[in-house]
Amino acid sequence: MAFEQFFVKMRHPCEMSFVMLRRAYVTASTTHTVDANRKLGLKAADIAKRLRSEKQRPTDINKEVPLSPLQKRVNELKQLTQQLQSVHPSVFAKALYRGILYQDKNILAINKPYGVPVYNVDGIKNSITECLPLLAKITDDMAAGSQFHLCHNLEKETTGVLILAKTKETAEHVQALIRSHQVETKYLAVTVGVPVPSEGVIDIPIIEREVMGPQPHFKMGLSPLFRVHEGGDGVRRVRAHRQAQSAVTKYRVLDSTSGCSLVELQPVTGVKNQLRVHMALALGCPILGDHKYANWNKLAPQKLPEGTLRRLDLAQSKTRYLPLHLHSRKIVLPGFKGHDEITVSCPLPKYFTNALKRLQIPLPGKE
Is the whole model's pTM more than 0.70, yes or no? Predict the structure, then answer.
């Protein structure tokens, strides 16, 4: 112990000076900090408040920009669609059951929701076809082990009346009625533009074509039987393409304003994408939300006039969120198997009526 005390006393003068200098610096720094805090009047509560505000600051920076009313409705529609596509099949079957429009011992009519395919599609869990056995189990008057049969098809983005048969025989009978043009089907569509004339029949064959460019893809296109002479004087008939399909659509403008129209469409034939192709390419009035046929040469969101964008409260950069405004409104089946004529109507979906209100187009009367 004496040796250690002696060693401390005999430290090198330079080392002793450094220790004394360091102690003096630390003491001075502590005194300066305390004095600064006294001058600022900082208290424990102030420091805690500052820390809380710093933690909340990143949240304020990342705060999302408020959505417009239409974008909120579109997001709701997307969420509903995703839910229907991803929920358990039994939950989806119950949703379809709640949408039953008509039922007898031969057929069942349901309200097909938006965004759900009729047939199986890669990447989508639920489809109408996959759900039919479950729907049959929870439907009255269905024998054990029996199931529904599809009578016709609706596109994934199209809503409205979908007819199902309770037996294969009935399904084949309804399909034969459709092929022989004995079933009357009426659709409602919101179009960008006003068709001229306001009522008529479009009789132009449709064919699938390849669209070349940066994004090569296939679309259904027109294959007209008549062409205008080079001099512009009269028309001439051309030879029909072997792969073209006959396509006939009756149409009638119910109302129009703000550069948009509510149009009743009645397909006489049933070619793929027929109504969309005839409206966009034959009349030059594409259906609102039809991002496939609004632009022929490219795959891009539909471009809307400024007036339409203002009424929809939508920016052009957000038009890709617009759903297709095409709805199967009514189907009339002729009497068969001892039954009278059957008429099935379906109410418009909410996003459709909201668009009509914003465009100031009167809602159609009940069928």
Answer: yes
